[in-house]
Amino acid sequence: MAWALKLPLTDEVIESGLVQDFDASLSGIGQELGAGAYSMSDVLALPIFKQEESNLPPDTENKILPFQYVLCAATSPAVKLHDETLTYLNQGQSYEIRMLDNRKIGELPEINDKMAKSIIRVVFHDRRLQYTEHQQLEGWRWNRPGDRILDLDIPMSVGITDPRANPTQLNTVEFLWDPSKRTSVFIQVHCISTEFTMRKHGGEKGVPFRIQIDTFKENENEEYTEHLHSASCQFKVFKPKGADRKQKTDREKMEKRAPQEKEKYQPSYETTILTECCPWPEVTYVGNSPSPGFNSTPNSFPVPEGNGSPNHQPEPVVQVADNLLPTATPQDAQQWLLRNRFSPYCRLFTNFSGADLLKLTREDVIQICGPADGIRLFNALKGRVVRPRLTIYVCQESQQPREQQPKHENGDAAANTFFVYHAIYLEELTAVELTEKLAQLFNISPRQINQIFKQGPTGIHVLVSDEMIQNYQDEVCFVLDTMKDDTNDGYHIILK
To answer: Could you say which DSSP state residue 309 is in?
Structure first.
């Protein structure tokens, strides 16, 4: 009993000792810091915070990033603290990404009054899918021919120039922008997360994606290869209005949780800030290999024109409606698809040679490309093999001696002579078309050909008209003679 009565005394002694020690430990603090000397930087300098910051890369400590990208879409409230944010997007809906310039005065002066290039790409978040990204995208392309994973909404975007989308990279777009001006780019994601799940029995979770933006500046060769900044964020894509329903479901679940549980989760923010990351490993392609101009219309890829001037001899150009030969390599087939406005299907036919494309039946092409583009592609592949309405063989007079010129309209000559003729194929059977084809043969502009004459009986010169061409026999032969026009830089051509 005596021992039990002594317990309170012992506790009082211990408590008084602790109070005295604590008071002694606080003595002098006010004298050292002084009134108003409290600073948050002093607190952050404590060892506990230093240890926490040591996990960051050395070059990001105490560093304000030069750029910041903000995706105008709300983050999910069902994400735990210290986890990366997750954002839900609707398929095909336009979302704004604000391109912000956070540079201090005097920072990166080399990009003042200059443009920067940014590349936006949609990639997989899971490492497993990153290893098989090429196969995953190829499978998606076969199921969605003609579609892109990522597009720019050009009319909605502000402050961007030269937007481009490479037809062989369905998940990538790029553009130029001035960091000193307000810039907002609107993007559309056309794939959904459940398209890449392993098992599709309904109710499965969709795979997360990442939006990554890499920004570059020009080097001394005016190529955008010097990396400035990269940032990314995690997101999922749902069918139209599915993201709104998912956001509402997450919000209702969080409201039902206990207050202690809610503290373990992040609040939902109205926008998503992309966090700094390493540059994408494939960004080296942006050097000096230009991508085709971005446009939603099929004819967004420029085709060189063959209009020459009197003082310039243009190089021979390939016409838009050229034939795809069976001997064409896969690279030649890709160029043919671009020239004939089939750019959305270039990735689809990456490994197809000319022979592979020409072997496709009408049903095959329609099944791959859909009815509209399928019929157009089939006609482009097969339609040009139709025999032209009129074939003319011509030979320049300078290629043979004057005394050995053919004396007949069909080009018959002596048996011991050898002449090289060129074939001209006419479809419209007009003098204008003949002028254009002869201009291509002479490698000059059609404007330099003033008149075309046919040598008639007794050497008279008859003006070639549409009606005369329509009455020519097929595979007729002519020898071409040219006369300089004294009044200008043009020529007269005589068919003999």
So the answer is: B
Question: Would you say residue 417 has pLDDT above 50?
Answer: yes
Q: What is Dmax (Cα atoms) for the chain? A: 153
Q: Parallel, antiparallel, or unpaired: how do β-strands 95-101 and 67-71 relate?
A: antiparallel
First to last CA, the chain: 141
- Computed over every residue of the chain, the mean pLDDT equals 75
Cα–Cα distance, 207 to 128 (Å, whole number): 11
In sequence order, what are the residues at sequence separation of 6 or more whose Cβ sits closer than 8 angstroms to the Cβ of residue 269?
Answer: 74, 75, 85
Buried/exposed code over 312-329 (b: 16+ C-beta within 10 A; e: otherwise): eeeeeeeeeeeebeeebe
CA 93 to each of CA 30, 73, 90, 333, 335: distance values in angstroms, whole numbers, following the listed order: 58, 11, 6, 34, 32
What tokens does 374 get?
């399928």
Residues paired with 284 in a beta bridge: none
Q: What percent of the chain has pLDDT over 90?
A: 19
**pLDDT tens-digit map of 51-62:** 333 334 444 445
Those residues whose C-beta lies under 8 Å from the C-beta of residue 287, and which sit 6 or more positions away, are 223, 224, 225
| pTM reported for the whole predicted model | 0.48
**Residue 491 is encoded by which pair of tokens?**
């020529």
Asked if 394 and 441 count as a contact pair (C-beta separation under 8 A), the reply is yes
Neighbours of 390 (CB within 10 A): 20
Query: Rounded distance, CA 77 to CA 112, Å?
Result: 39
Report whether 279 contacts 212 (CB < 8 A): no
- What is the arithmetic mean of pLDDT over 153-180? 90
The DSSP letter of residue 492 is E
Question: Beta strand pairing status for 390-396 and 476-484?
Answer: parallel
In one letter, which amino acid is 74?
A
Length of the chain: 496
- pLDDT average, residue stretch 71-88: 91
Residue 185, both tokens: 């780019």
Q: Return d(Cα 413, Cα 213) in angstroms, integer.
A: 70
Residue 428 has which token pair?
Answer: 């419209």
Quote the CA–CA distance of 7 and 5 in Å, as a whole number.
6
Smallest CA-to-CA distance from 166 within 338, 357, 372 is with 338
Q: Coil, strand or helix: which one is 7?
A: helix
- Among 321, 337, 318, 320, smallest CA distance to 329 is for 337
Question: What average pLDDT does this structure show over 332-345?
Answer: 83
Residue 265 DSSP SS3: strand
- Kindly give the residue spans of alpha helices, DSSP state H, lying in 80-160: 127-131, 133-143
Q: Which of 162, 184, 156, 186 is nearest to 292 (CA)?
A: 162
